[in-house]
Amino acid sequence: MEKSYFVHSSSFIDEPARIGEGTTIWHFCHIQTGALIGRGCRIGQNVNIGGAARIGDRVKIQNNVSVYDAVVLEDDVFCGPSMVFTNVINPRSHISRKNEYRSTLVRRGATIGANATVICGVTIGAYAFVGAGAVVTRDVPDYALVFGNPARVKGWVCACGEKLSLDPSSEKGLACFACGKKYRSNGRMTAELSASN
Which single residue of 48, 155, 176, 178 has CA 20 to 30 Å from 94? Predict the structure, then answer.
Protein backbone atom coordinates (compact mmCIF):
# COMPACT_ATOMS: atom_id res chain seq x y z
CA MET A 1 0.00 0.00 0.00
CA GLU A 2 1.41 3.38 -1.03
CA LYS A 3 2.07 5.79 1.83
CA SER A 4 0.91 9.41 1.73
CA TYR A 5 4.09 10.47 3.56
CA PHE A 6 7.84 9.90 3.10
CA VAL A 7 10.06 7.87 5.43
CA HIS A 8 13.78 7.43 4.76
CA SER A 9 14.83 3.77 4.58
CA SER A 10 17.12 4.17 7.62
CA SER A 11 14.20 5.11 9.91
CA PHE A 12 11.88 2.83 11.88
CA ILE A 13 8.11 3.19 12.25
CA ASP A 14 6.63 0.92 14.93
CA GLU A 15 3.09 0.22 13.75
CA PRO A 16 0.50 1.28 14.45
CA ALA A 17 1.46 4.94 14.31
CA ARG A 18 -0.61 7.64 12.62
CA ILE A 19 1.35 9.86 10.24
CA GLY A 20 -0.35 12.59 8.23
CA GLU A 21 -0.26 13.21 4.51
CA GLY A 22 2.78 15.04 3.17
CA THR A 23 4.93 14.49 6.28
CA THR A 24 8.63 13.82 5.71
CA ILE A 25 10.70 11.70 8.10
CA TRP A 26 14.44 11.79 7.44
CA HIS A 27 17.43 9.59 8.39
CA PHE A 28 17.76 7.48 11.54
CA CYS A 29 14.42 8.37 13.14
CA HIS A 30 12.29 6.18 15.41
CA ILE A 31 8.53 6.65 15.56
CA GLN A 32 7.11 4.51 18.37
CA THR A 33 3.84 2.58 18.46
CA GLY A 34 0.86 4.86 19.00
CA ALA A 35 2.55 8.13 17.98
CA LEU A 36 0.32 10.68 16.30
CA ILE A 37 1.94 13.00 13.74
CA GLY A 38 -0.06 15.50 11.71
CA ARG A 39 0.02 16.55 8.06
CA GLY A 40 2.88 18.35 6.36
CA CYS A 41 5.39 17.87 9.18
CA ARG A 42 9.17 17.85 8.68
CA ILE A 43 10.99 15.43 10.99
CA GLY A 44 14.78 15.87 10.84
CA GLN A 45 17.57 13.37 11.26
CA ASN A 46 17.89 11.27 14.44
CA VAL A 47 14.50 12.20 15.94
CA ASN A 48 12.67 9.93 18.39
CA ILE A 49 8.91 10.33 18.87
CA GLY A 50 7.27 8.52 21.80
CA GLY A 51 4.11 6.47 21.45
CA ALA A 52 2.07 8.86 23.60
CA ALA A 53 3.44 12.02 21.94
CA ARG A 54 1.02 14.14 19.92
CA ILE A 55 2.23 16.33 17.06
CA GLY A 56 0.00 18.69 15.09
CA ASP A 57 0.12 19.77 11.45
CA ARG A 58 3.08 21.54 9.79
CA VAL A 59 5.39 20.99 12.78
CA LYS A 60 9.14 21.15 12.10
CA ILE A 61 11.37 19.08 14.37
CA GLN A 62 15.05 19.59 13.59
CA ASN A 63 17.88 17.06 14.06
CA ASN A 64 18.58 15.24 17.34
CA VAL A 65 15.30 15.91 19.19
CA SER A 66 13.35 13.41 21.31
CA VAL A 67 9.64 14.12 21.72
CA TYR A 68 8.75 11.99 24.73
CA ASP A 69 5.44 10.61 25.95
CA ALA A 70 3.22 13.32 27.48
CA VAL A 71 4.55 16.01 25.11
CA VAL A 72 1.98 17.73 22.85
CA LEU A 73 3.07 20.00 20.00
CA GLU A 74 0.20 21.93 18.44
CA ASP A 75 0.13 23.04 14.79
CA ASP A 76 3.03 25.04 13.31
CA VAL A 77 5.47 24.47 16.19
CA PHE A 78 9.22 24.68 15.45
CA CYS A 79 11.71 22.64 17.51
CA GLY A 80 15.32 23.69 16.88
CA PRO A 81 18.28 21.32 16.57
CA SER A 82 19.19 19.35 19.68
CA MET A 83 16.59 21.00 21.91
CA VAL A 84 15.50 18.83 24.84
CA PHE A 85 12.17 17.86 26.35
CA THR A 86 12.00 16.06 29.70
CA ASN A 87 9.13 14.05 31.14
CA VAL A 88 10.11 13.27 34.75
CA ILE A 89 11.02 15.95 37.29
CA ASN A 90 13.27 13.78 39.52
CA PRO A 91 14.67 10.86 37.50
CA ARG A 92 16.70 8.02 39.04
CA SER A 93 17.99 5.09 37.00
CA HIS A 94 17.05 2.57 39.72
CA ILE A 95 13.45 3.84 40.19
CA SER A 96 10.76 3.55 37.52
CA ARG A 97 8.71 6.75 37.31
CA LYS A 98 6.72 6.13 34.12
CA ASN A 99 3.52 6.73 36.10
CA GLU A 100 4.83 10.19 37.08
CA TYR A 101 5.29 11.71 33.61
CA ARG A 102 4.35 15.40 33.59
CA SER A 103 2.60 16.80 30.54
CA THR A 104 4.26 19.47 28.42
CA LEU A 105 2.20 21.54 25.99
CA VAL A 106 3.67 23.68 23.22
CA ARG A 107 0.91 25.88 21.78
CA ARG A 108 0.32 26.77 18.15
CA GLY A 109 3.10 28.57 16.28
CA ALA A 110 5.66 28.54 19.10
CA THR A 111 9.39 28.31 18.40
CA ILE A 112 11.94 26.55 20.60
CA GLY A 113 15.53 27.43 19.70
CA ALA A 114 18.53 25.16 19.28
CA ASN A 115 19.86 23.49 22.43
CA ALA A 116 17.05 24.85 24.63
CA THR A 117 15.79 22.62 27.46
CA VAL A 118 12.11 22.43 28.42
CA ILE A 119 11.49 21.04 31.91
CA CYS A 120 8.36 18.87 31.98
CA GLY A 121 5.03 20.15 33.22
CA VAL A 122 5.09 23.56 31.51
CA THR A 123 3.04 25.21 28.78
CA ILE A 124 4.75 27.29 26.12
CA GLY A 125 2.22 29.80 24.83
CA ALA A 126 1.03 30.40 21.28
CA TYR A 127 3.66 32.07 19.06
CA ALA A 128 6.09 32.32 21.97
CA PHE A 129 9.78 32.31 21.09
CA VAL A 130 12.25 30.40 23.28
CA GLY A 131 15.80 31.52 22.55
CA ALA A 132 18.66 29.15 21.79
CA GLY A 133 20.13 27.54 24.90
CA ALA A 134 17.32 28.69 27.21
CA VAL A 135 16.18 26.53 30.13
CA VAL A 136 12.40 26.74 30.46
CA THR A 137 11.31 25.99 34.04
CA ARG A 138 7.88 27.70 34.11
CA ASP A 139 4.98 28.52 31.78
CA VAL A 140 5.71 30.93 28.93
CA PRO A 141 2.97 33.44 27.96
CA ASP A 142 1.63 33.77 24.42
CA TYR A 143 3.92 35.85 22.15
CA ALA A 144 6.65 36.07 24.82
CA LEU A 145 10.34 36.14 23.93
CA VAL A 146 12.22 34.21 26.62
CA PHE A 147 15.86 33.30 27.02
CA GLY A 148 18.46 32.61 29.69
CA ASN A 149 18.79 30.09 32.53
CA PRO A 150 16.18 30.05 33.88
CA ALA A 151 14.32 31.52 30.91
CA ARG A 152 12.66 34.87 31.60
CA VAL A 153 10.46 37.15 29.50
CA LYS A 154 12.72 39.63 27.69
CA GLY A 155 10.21 41.02 25.18
CA TRP A 156 7.38 40.10 22.84
CA VAL A 157 7.28 38.66 19.32
CA CYS A 158 4.83 38.80 16.44
CA ALA A 159 3.20 35.72 14.96
CA CYS A 160 5.62 36.24 12.05
CA GLY A 161 8.59 35.85 14.43
CA GLU A 162 9.83 39.45 14.52
CA LYS A 163 10.33 41.28 17.81
CA LEU A 164 7.52 43.70 18.65
CA SER A 165 8.18 47.39 19.26
CA LEU A 166 6.21 50.07 21.06
CA ASP A 167 3.47 51.44 18.83
CA PRO A 168 3.61 55.25 19.00
CA SER A 169 -0.03 55.48 17.84
CA SER A 170 -1.38 53.40 20.75
CA GLU A 171 -0.98 53.69 24.52
CA LYS A 172 0.51 50.42 25.85
CA GLY A 173 0.31 49.01 22.32
CA LEU A 174 2.89 47.02 20.41
CA ALA A 175 3.39 46.69 16.67
CA CYS A 176 5.31 44.56 14.23
CA PHE A 177 7.07 46.82 11.78
CA ALA A 178 7.77 43.83 9.49
CA CYS A 179 4.17 42.70 8.80
CA GLY A 180 2.08 45.50 10.34
CA LYS A 181 0.16 43.47 12.94
CA LYS A 182 -0.77 45.28 16.15
CA TYR A 183 -0.92 43.94 19.69
CA ARG A 184 -2.04 45.07 23.12
CA SER A 185 -0.01 44.34 26.22
CA ASN A 186 -0.51 44.69 29.97
CA GLY A 187 3.16 44.03 30.67
CA ARG A 188 2.62 40.37 31.59
CA MET A 189 0.53 39.17 28.63
CA THR A 190 0.24 40.21 25.01
CA ALA A 191 -2.59 39.55 22.54
CA GLU A 192 -3.02 40.28 18.85
CA LEU A 193 -5.64 42.89 17.99
CA SER A 194 -8.23 41.81 15.46
CA ALA A 195 -8.70 43.83 12.28
CA SER A 196 -11.89 45.33 13.75
CA ASN A 197 -10.14 46.68 16.90
Answer: 48
